[in-house]
Amino acid sequence: MTGGRRSFGARARRVRLLLLDVDGVLTDGRILFGGPGREQRQFDVKDGAGLVLARRLGWRTGFLSGRGGAAVAERARELGIDEVHLRVDDKPRVYEGIKRRLGVADAEICYMGDDLMDLGMLLRAKLPVAPADAHPEVRRRVPFVTRAAGGRGAVREVVDAVARAQGRWREMTGWFTGAKG
Fold this sequence. Notes:
- The chain is α/β, with parallel strands linked by helices.
- The chain has a single domain (5-177), classed as HAD superfamily/HAD-like (Rossmann fold), CATH 3.40.50.
- It contains eight helices and eight strands; from the N terminus they run αβββαβαβαβαβαβαα.
- Strands 5-4-1-6-7-8 form a six-stranded parallel β-sheet, with helices on both faces. A two-stranded antiparallel ribbon has the order 2-3.
- α1 crosses α7 and α2 (45-56) runs parallel beside α7 (154-165).
- The longest helix is centred in the first third of the chain and has 12 residues, at 45-56.
- The chain is globular, with a radius of gyration of 15 Å.
- The two termini are 24 Å apart.
- 38% of the residues are buried.
């Protein structure tokens, strides 16, 4: 991930909520149409695994998308996503509602978005991240940009980086190796 390492670590240590745009972050932004009501999206298994690990680390997770569809809702259910907000017209209003309901502050939120409509949340959250292929204006304004593109492991990159910053990497890998963190 590019951006100031010291600044990232200090911000990442406080993260309790990972809130994500969907199209362009969890997907590569392409939408396939297979007939009425049959939108299809492709999700990266590494991002899904990262979200499962985030939840196991005790973080809350959420989707905040201007679009939606059955595929996104199904993926959210499959991954046990805590907050699912689809077809949102006013993302900043919903973002503030999530904060209030969960009792989290901006300093405890990592928000990942890729386009201009995400700037409101990216400028509020204290750990704003954009995927490598985000809109140029978003990449210019956000201090942290992943090496991976949206839908290509960018979310997993963030989960791993935050887990390391929180000193939980050995614990997390120990779940699968039997080693004690």
